[in-house]
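Notes from the 1:1 (GR / supervisor)

We went over the backlog. Supervisor wanted to see one worked example end to end before approving the batch request, so GR pasted a single chain during the call. The sequence is below; no edits were made to it. Supervisor asked that the structure be written out right there so they could see what the output format looks like.
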Amino acid sequence: MALNSDPLVSTEWLAERLMQGGAKAVDSTWWFPFENRNARADFLAARIPGASFFDIDAVADHETDLPHMLPSPERFAEAVGALGVTDDACIVVYETDTPRSAARAWWSFRAMGARDVRVLDGGLRKWRAEGRPLESGPAVEKRTTFSPRFNPDLVLNAHQMAIRLRDGGAQVVDARPAARFAGVAPEPRPGLRPGHMPGARSLPASQLYGPDGLMLSPEALREQFLASGVDVEKPVAATCGSGITACNIALALARLGRFDASVYDGSWAEWGALADAPAVHGEPTPPWEGG
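Structure output shown during the call:
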């Protein structure tokens, strides 16, 4: 995919490519535990024909207590190869309903070197509403080979994030709801401090989408970034609660031609549990001056 092309595709585009055998659909639906939904069960009940299920919690680093962290390139390649996904395929990721996790899958595939990965705008909700074909039951997977080429520029750890906060090497944009950013609403994970990283800007991921689940137009996205104090022409490091909704910031920036946004994989699940990591409440503050 050319770096200046839109990472989103329409249902019409995908339907045509599927008929031609020119795309691989991947369901990456993920639900918060408190939502009491089972993403795999949803996939088995109804999915886009030929789709595979990308389990964000399973295709993850299981050597850490942090949720759904990126696995090693080798582990990622083994997992997605078992799903019939190759690194040179046109991969189209989608989710069942609320825009959230498809962006995470998009970012994960990009970080692992996939050449052409897109997001289905509107997801399965729009596909269903248009009466397009669905299938159900166990998916028949044909193992393929995914050759990973890890791109470290897209992934940040806590140390790298601390350096960016200290040196101002990137604008930090937090995709959590505004009340959690301000520290006036509790975090859904126990043991985490409230608040946000010093110098961060708040742009809830929900503000990037319309009520129909479609991502806003590039012009409207620019307005959202501007209103949040973010210069889209400068580097951005995205963060959130656990590294999922932050990827929507990266996806929105890609719509604006900026495919270089990095994501702090541990996000607040890690930062909020670090005793020596600075955190503040209320409105954004000047960048952290500590070491």
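Supervisor's comment: Residues 283-291 have pLDDT under 50 and may be disordered.
Batch request approved.
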